[in-house]
Amino acid sequence: MDDLRYPRRLLLTVISAIVVFTSSMTIVSASLPTMATDLDTTESLLSWAVTGLFLVMAVCTPILGRLGDVHGHRTVFLWGAAVLSVATAAAAAAPSAETFVAARMLAGLGIAATMPTAMALIMEAYPVDRRSEAMGWFSMAMTGAPVVGLVVGGPLIEAFGWRSVFIVLAPISVLGWLAAWRFIRPSPRAAPVPIDWSGAATLAAGTTGALLFLQFGGTGGFGSPGALAMAALGVAGIAAFLTVERRAAAPMLRLEYFARPNFRGPLIAQPTAQFAYMGSFVISPLLLDDLFGYSVSVVALILLFRPGTYSLTSPIGGRLASRVGERVMVIAGTVLMVASMAAWVGGAWWTNVPLILVGLVLSGLAMGLATPAYATVLAGSVERDDLGVANAMGATMMNIGMLTGIQAMFTVLGDGRAPADFALVFAFAGVVAAVGLVGGWMIRDEAGESPPSEVDVALSLVAEEPRA
Questions:
Q1: Cβ-count burial of 37 within 10 angstroms (0-12 exposed, 13-18 middle, 19+ buried)?
Q2: Which residues contact residue 130 at a Cβ distance below 8 angstroms, ignoring those fewer than 6 apart?
Q3: pLDDT in tens, 333-385
Q4: In 31-96, which residue ranges form alpha helices assigned H by DSSP?
Q5: Which has the closest alpha carbon to 276: 196, 359, 204, 198?
């Protein structure tokens, strides 16, 4: 009986250990002006509490996911949860903007360790036919927590200041760590192999260059010396990573996985969906303010429709994926995301609030239905010993999609604030989201998997070139 209860207890435990992170995400973004005043700094500097966090996550997640595969997912998860607890307490006590940014970047390191290993632990505990359902509940908690955080944290900040949020979250984080230490069973480890530190370093360089290119390009122009230098670092890092991995005896990421449609598909479909989802997330407050003149509190209330829908429909997406197949759900999510951007185009062009609400609900529905399938397809495409690094690659590509969407949509909008300017931005996002259909179409459900195509065979031959 205990074995039958363990998967559910594990799911609740890992959620309790990391839910404080997602709870604080929206609060930090919404409170930047208040925090900047209190810490006597600029919003520009304090924005690195968000940008730097995502950067650390994108760079460190693959490395820590691989460490989880080698040293045990439970071990790395517990270390990451401990770091997250320390970072939450440090944010509450931060005496300056610089220390607060450092604390949030430390939190990024903690979540980079816990997120891929949490997903791997869930995948190991649940049978294959129930993974999508489990990931649906996991996604519900991860997307619902920011909504709860915003609803509860807003009044808390107004009454006691922004530090009160982290003062409340810190002990919750510690209790989550204690529960994880108590209940999570040791997980299987991969065969004892050396860590591919050269691969880790080159992948980190490539990811850092790509993300800082977006950051510097968005602020100083994509043709600026800083942005071009980061672009060169990104290209050189990825090229070096491919070279190193092709020759490594124990690569951090087996390149032959890219020959598998179920590995490639989610890595295309999820980032393009997040491009539209997160890009529109940061543009929508501007639209609601400039075109409709709504106050901040009204804007926040309207925007809750999207994460609320995302959270509530994630379990439904997981259950449907188990019944009709992940491929159908990924394609359906992509179509709904494109439809949501079309609704935003109409809402902006005609300054129509009902269409804006339709766009918000469709965006949340798109992600809620497809997100569980992204994770389970990716996990099912790799060997058990590579679950951590596979989940980490999915998370990294998701973060790249988010940051690319934010910067690209701000660039397209520019200084324009007319209805046509906003409509153009959402039309652009819809085109990018539609590219996700390519990834969705690649995915093959296990029951109906077809022979590899000529492209798959060619990619496999390239990945399996003799190693020096």
A1: exposed
A2: 7, 322
A3: 999 999 999 999 999 999 999 999 999 999 999 999 999 999 899 989 998 88
A4: 32-38, 43-46, 48-71, 73-93
A5: 359
